Amino acid sequence: MSEEYRNETNNAKSISDLKPPVKEEPKKANNYDGVKKVIAVVSGKGGVGKSLVTSMLSVKSRQAGLSTAILDADITGPSIPRSFGVKDRAMTDEAGTVIYPAITSTGIKMMSLNLLMDNETDPVIWRGPVIANAVKQFWEEVLWEDVDLMFVDCPPGTGDVPLTIFQTLPVAGIVVVTSPQDLVSMIVEKAVKMAKMMKVPVLGIVENMSYFECPDCGKKHYIYGESHIDEIAKDLDIKTVAKLPIKPEVAAMVDSGRAEDIDVSALNDIFEAIKEA
Ligand SMILES: Nc1ncnc2c1ncn2[C@@H]1O[C@H](COP(=O)(O)OP(=O)(O)OP(=O)(O)O)[C@@H](O)[C@H]1O
Ligand SMILES: [Mg+2]
Ligand SMILES: [Zn+2]
Question: In total, how many domains does the chain have?
């Protein structure tokens, strides 16, 4: 006890004269404290179906009865709300201190820049650091509450924003999405390297638009040539591979906001790997 404090105590005439030492306030709970597991969905380049896979995994998770969320970190090309038919803008509390996630018809929570903009077709021309900060804010300022599984639709590539995601969010594992037109082995290797650097496992690879199931002859046509994804996965010790066919009806469902009606059974194995991560 300091000399000064003791003197004050000795001179005290009532309790209100006593000045107990100031204790640090208990740490305020974070909005994301209830999020149990975060899975990042990444790809080497755009347009390979990363958002589709993010959506499908979330649908799978929800169908399995888990409390599920999507953080749309693809800030300059946010597409998640639209594929779920979510049109309402996100709400905030009166003080403006928290943002409430939007909720889809089956109960998937989501946050996307689209939900904060007046006009979802307005282009976002932010630069890297601002984008990275927006992702951080989605994580910290959205009232996520209880979430068993959160899927993060990352921007394509292995640049600053994906890196920020790994540094800010407690990512438990990543899922890599490729297409047969990609320089698949290079992209997957890059993702594996990044994952190693960040000390998170690559839980699976999804080869999207892998083949086309022919309505005429019933055969699988490998339009982009033979798939090498199994060998690549084996070389890199990635245990789970999923192949998604090109399905025009899937594109139609995404376009019309019916992601929750898509058959997601092709991702069963990857989902099991995610649950175990
Ligand atoms: N297997 C598939 N069959 C049919 N259409 C598909 C398939 N995968 C994706 N598509 C369609 O291709 C387009 C691109 O897919 P998606 O938006 O998921 O890719 P992305 O990697 O997230 O692209 P971006 O880099 O623009 O965010 C979408 O219109 C989607 O509906
Ligand atoms: Mg996308
Ligand atoms: Zn055929």
Answer: 1
